Amino acid sequence: MDFSATFSGTRTSKTVPEEEEKDEKEKAPEKVEIDLEGFEARAIMLPVGRGQFYALAVNDKGHLIYTRSSRGGGGEGTSIKVFDVEDEDRKEKTVISGTGAFVMSPDGKNVPVIDSPSMVAARSKVSIPSSVSISRVQLRPPLSLSGMRVVLQPRVEWKQVFHDTWRIYRDFFYDPHMHGVDWAAVREHYGKMLDDCVSREDVSFLIREMISELNVGHAYYWGGSTDRGPSVTTGMLGCDFELDSGAYRIAKIYAGAPWDADARGPLSQPGVDVKEGDYLLAVNGVALDTRQDPWAMFQGLTSKVVTITVSDKPERDDEARDVLVKLLSSERNLRFRDWIDENRAYVAEKTGGKVGYIYVPDTGTNGQSELFRQFYGQLDKQALIIDERWNGGGQLPNRFIELLNRPATNYFARRDGKDAPTPSTSHQGPKCMLINGLAGSGGDMFPALFRIAGLGKLIGTRTWGGLVGLSGNPRLIDGAYVSVPTFAYYELDGTWGIEGHGVDPDIEVIDDPALMVNGQDPQLDAAIAHMLAEIKRNPYVPPKRPPYPDRSGMGITEEDK
């Protein structure tokens, strides 16, 4: 623009004397030596009460700073603590309560504390000297984020996201040979399409296509800076409706077993005067319009207390009654528990109570809890059906198998009551497992280990076939995440297994939709028939209690030695 100018300035910052600057330059860095021999034996236990600790860091004064959580996560019960090993009190002190997110500065002098949506910074030398009360610590004022703006060039960022994905797979994929795929050629091939992308969704599609070239499970991609429209929550009553006589009738109320306190919906709470067969006529005084689905009246009312008008007749008259209920945000848990309880009751009915039923939804913490929760109530059954269909995976289910594979070692005789087996928390009868094509990852490993342990037959259809697992890798710059499979399953005979194929059933039963109307389950029926046959063919027969010993003389008999 033919513009030019001359600028001049002077330095106003503090100058360093030449001698001091010279001393700094000549001062050699202190050498740090770590004596690894006997390292563990020199460790000491700090006198700190039990709890959950995270993000341990040491400041420039040698004080330990950490997050303590008494409730297993963030929020209430979480605080940042400091412990000075040289403090005569030998007690931890609180830096800040109500948050636990902090990052030690590189020089160890400051602790930026994240307290969303603002940030404060606390000096990390707060516990010096020991006489200084922690309550006197002065925190810097919250950092305003209102002026933090950045201008992005989407196409430049898209290129980085694309190439970073390619690099992350190159560096983290379990097979350095990339399954024989020419990974450099793949980047060149798909990279040519990047300029034709006109939205972030296009870039996401391109990335998914690129990583699919590796022909492997657990290669996922999600997230990114995409626009999302507004959403409206819907309150739920925990029931099914049917249109009858020009009104919505409550056809079924969902609840788990009587002991499932976490599976009682709004209509199955004690004292709520609503039953199956009643008609829902109004919500908060507004009549239902049958031209809309019944849930239209509950939009935006999640977790709200509402008044519903019900009657055993399809018309609103003097006999209609108003009932206060608190709506749910989801019916998932109600329907899940109800489905399990119906299956358990069905198995018990068909087998005369001889066979138990356990459903395992995944192999993570939830699945392990479900297995333990249901297992102890089924120990008296002669046989067990373990249903892992639709198992969502999670962790390696070794502990699941250990619970199901505990052989009896002995029995203890008691004068009053039944003899007690050891281990007491074990089941000794025949077992089988239900599997299908929507059980994968840990849901592949579970039946594989079930078969290796010789616990019983697998019944249903072949599982998903995804046993190259995940252990974490860097995210992309815009918050999107691409998962890289980092470890793969292979057999004891030195061959790869399961990945890309799955676990085959011993007894194949196709889940034909035509055979599953009205709640029918041909796979479950096959498992019931198999277990009844196993009880006849190979039942577990506990040993008989021997006659009480005669110890009137010296010593014991030969058979009792």
Give a verbal description of the structure:
- 20% of the residues lie in helices and 20% in strands.
- With 561 residues, the protein is of the alpha+beta class.
- The chain has helices spanning 18-26, 154-172, 183-191, 200-211, 332-351, 365-375, 398-404, 442-452, 522-537; strands at 52-58, 64-69, 78-83, 93-97, 101-102, 110-115, 118-123, 221-222, 239-244, 247-253, 279-283, 286-287, 305-311, 321-326, 355-359, 383-387, 410-412, 420-422, 431-435, 456-460, 468-470, 481-482, 485-488, 507-508.
- The N and C termini lie far apart (107 Å).
- It is extended, with a radius of gyration of 33 Å.
- Residues 121-138 have low confidence and may be disordered.
- The strands form 7 sheets. Strands 9, 10, 11, 12, 13 and 14 form a 6-stranded antiparallel beta sheet that branches.
- The longest helix is centred in the middle third of the chain and has 20 residues, at 332-351.
- The chain has 4 domains: 43-136, no CATH class; 155-222, 2-Layer Sandwich (Transcription Regulator spoIIAA), CATH 3.30.750; 239-332, PDZ domain (Pdz3 Domain, Roll), CATH 2.30.42; 354-467 and 502-537, 2-enoyl-CoA Hydratase, Chain A, domain 1, CATH 3.90.226.
- Helix 2 packs parallel to helix 4.
- It has 9 helices and 24 strands.
Portion in helices? 10-25%
Query: Pairing-aware structural class of the strands and helices?
Result: alpha+beta
* Beta-strand residue percentage: 15-25%
Poorly predicted ranges? 121-138
What's the number of extended β-strand segments? Answer: 24
- CA radius of gyration: 33 Å
The CATH class name of the largest domain reads Alpha Beta
pLDDT averaged over residues:
88
